[in-house]
Amino acid sequence: MRQRPTRFRALILLGVVFAMVAAACTSSDTAEDSGLVTITARCKATSVEAGRCNNLLQGVVAANAQLEADGDDRRVQVQIIQDNADWGDYLTEFELASSAGEAPDIIVSGHELIGTWATSGIITDVTDQIGDYPEFDDMIPSLWASTELDGKRWGIPQDAEARPMYYRKDLLLELGWTQAEVDSLPADIASGAFTWEDMIDTAEAAVAAGLVDEGNGWWHRPVNGADFVYYYYAAGGELLDDSGSVIYDQAAAQQVYELVGGAVDRGVLSDTLLGTSWADWNATVANGDILFWFGGSWQWSDWAENYVVEGGEQYLLDNVGFGAIPALAGGTNTPISLTHPLLYMVSSDTEDVDLALLVISKATTKELNTEYAVTSGHLGILQSQVGYEPYESAAFLAEVGSILEFTTFLPNSPFYASWSEGYFLGLSAVESGQATPAEAVQIVVDQLQNELGQNVIIK
Q1: Structural domains for the chain
Q2: Buried b vs exposed e over 115-129: b needs ≥16 C-beta within 10 Å?
């Protein structure tokens, strides 16, 4: 399948907003007498997510106006470093920069990094300062939970998303579904009438009918990541104990491994999917070669912008449907999803925490966040976006937000990364045919006990 050239390469974008600072100063004397503080922000972003750092640039004018109104002689300028680096490289870069005392003032990353970064002391506890910025009062209250560890808040939500099951409406019609059945699928998923098991059965029928190639009935992400956690939740697994230890529920994990292994055995899932490049994965799902796939709401905009051969978002709206992840009847029998908010976090190296938060607050408005959300396929984070016409009129966002009824979070735990690597090791071993589900569980138990010791509970 042909992939359209992306409009965004992994380029470093540096922007220093001297003009904004000058415009905010009332006179040259003011500029000379005041302290000019540079805040550096580091963001990972695709072409459609550039608002992550760009919104901070937009917020500088309002930040300087606020400083002037408050009689504060300081002025602020923002320098951004924004590219689409690999997540592993991006996080390692920040950790190494922190060790060298050269970290950016603001880093955008997933909330689960709090578990490691807060306990290692490289990000700042902002609990007591949040109340100084009225913009943060507009935050959807439930999102604050993603910023918390040990009763403290370690960041400000920058975006949120849903993780739907996507499906090809046209292929379901070719399989013999009626239009009414296709149209009602999201509601049937939400009610539990269409389960994960039904998805596998339908995918197997599509492979048998030749509508998709063997292994293309259902696809998950091609590398480890947050999505695999809701498989475990759907099977009834618990992840975090009240003591702070992580939990590995052997029965739940084995059920997940049996599900994935069974999908491979039935020709629904490819045993070579893991390790596929994101570019190939996105091109394949965007252009009609897969019946069902699990992905993120943010990928919708990326597909429309960079991967659909022709037709853009309208092509997707015409041919692709979405709903919550179906209930796993053999597990909790409840539909599920996961939201993974990215946060603005302030480095502990930062001397001007108040200015960093001021700039973040001025970037956290319904206007700026809506422009970002509509462009990138992320969900609104502010209460004022409910009923805000530019947000409500975005067809995809207006529908996908309902999936949050079934959402879950990752744990903010310093032990989560090791847990995730171990759990995924078992899943990949089964999917590639290197272990049975029972053998995979034991492999994971051994690894987690070796790495985490008393910080993991084997259940």
Answers
A1: 13-161+342-406 (3.40.190.10), 165-338+415-458 (3.40.190.10)
A2: bbbbeeebbbbbeeb
